Amino acid sequence: MSSLEGINWVRLSFVDVFGVGHSMQIPASRFDGAVKEGEPFDGSALEGRARLLETDMRLQPDPSTLVEIGDGLARAVCNVLTFDGRRWPGDPRTALVSVVEDLGELAQEYTSSVELEFFLLDESGVPVDRGGYFDEDEGRGASVVRAAADRLGTYGVDVDACHHEAGPGQYEIDLAAIGPIALADAIVLTKQVIREVAADARMRATFMPRPFADEPGSGLHFLQRVSGRFFAEDGSLDQMGRSFVAGQLVHARALSALAAPTVNSYKRLHSGAEAPSAAVWAHVNRGALIRVSSYMGRDASIEFRGADPSANPHLLLAGMLVAGADGIEREMALAPAVEEDLGGFDPAGSDSVRFDALPRDLDDALDALLSDDVMVDAFDRQLLSRLIDGRRAEAAAYRNQVTGWEIERYLDEA
């Protein structure tokens, strides 16, 4: 969108350090000034629930993201500036922009499509259907997902496909491959649109990693590509591609703090045949962290399966790029693939390939992030401090809870 004709207000959108979307609205007449100098706002909102003291900052909208969303309202994604007009490295989007600039050609040629999974619930919190994987039956949920996809299309976000996932009321929407900054922005917008369309239909969309103990969790899978690189003519990984995958595996435990950033995330990981539990790669093993497709040509991809929808996509994509680039720079060797046999993949039973188990809980993941110098050096110290302190507080609050399971099991046993 290149004109504000017919627009009365512009929603300035940004995400906090935890990936939660926020916004403020300004009259359209102030938009050009905001692009040039930034619009003042309270930057403590970037700390999410951990916010304490007000901080004077500026929101600078990226004019290339301006899109009309109806009723005289437009939306633009923002970077955060200090009050004196400098880019603030504690902003998640700015962190990704900086990584893309630092990595140069690799990041500029990098694209990824995304498979985003979620549940649709009725007003009482029950899944809206009892469908299964790729179920053809038409239901309330299917119409909501299509309506969300249609709306995203009008906003400039291309959807490749959508379908029913394995759990009741669980769906997947697939975003077309684009560059890392645009993709992170699109994931944030997609979640917002799905929530809005679901609410209009008297439903509730949840992107919680695992909302039901007896059902599959929801993942966020990235199908990564770099134009003209990573794959040989026969469809196998070339040396650069192998090192890129090796880098993401070497830094997998640290990446988990960005990819699976909540207490609930670790009830999805390690929980079933299709949930990653170890830093291994494969072609067909559904439990591998990275799956290299057997497709050839433009459809070949490197699928990162360790993330869930609670991730901050800007920080996660920055971390994934840094990890892969480190593998290339250090010419890391890629261990053999760990494929799934007929009995299912059991990493604990493997003695032929060395691998690192993924973290079992959030504290373990945060420790891994802090001990990974490459990951730590990739981000502003203030940003990491806010992220880690906030997540540590969540983990501590969770440990202080006494659950119904504990009451039932131990109340009369001790």
Structural class: alpha+beta
Shape: globular
- Biggest sheet: strands, sense, closure? 8 strands, mixed
| Beta-strand content bin | 15-25%
The CATH architecture of the largest domain comes to 2-Layer Sandwich
What is the topological layout?
Layout: E1 9-15, E2 21-27, H1 31-37, E3 39-42, E4 56-61, E5 67-70, E6 73-82, H2 92-103, H3 105-108, E7 110-121, H4 140-154, E8 159-164, E9 170-178, H5 180-200, E10 204-206, E11 220-226, H6 239-250, H7 252-259, E12 278-282, E13 288-292, E14 302-307, H8 313-329, H9 362-370, H10 373-378, H11 381-399, H12 404-410
Parallel strand pairs: 1-6, 12-13
Antiparallel strand pairs: 1-2, 3-4, 4-6, 5-6, 7-9, 7-10, 7-11, 8-9, 11-14, 13-14
Helix pairs in contact: 2-8, 4-5, 5-8, 6-8, 7-8, 7-9
Structural summary, described in words:
The longest helix has 21 residues. The protein folds into 2 domains: 79 residues, Glutamine synthetase, N-terminal domain (Ubiquitin-like (UB roll), Roll); 298 residues, Glutamine synthetase/guanido kinase, catalytic domain (Creatine Kinase, Chain A, domain 2). It is 33% helix and 22% strand. The protein has 414 residues and is an alpha+beta fold. The protein is globular. The model has no long low-confidence stretch (mean pLDDT 91).
Quick rundown:
With 414 residues, the chain is of the alpha+beta class.
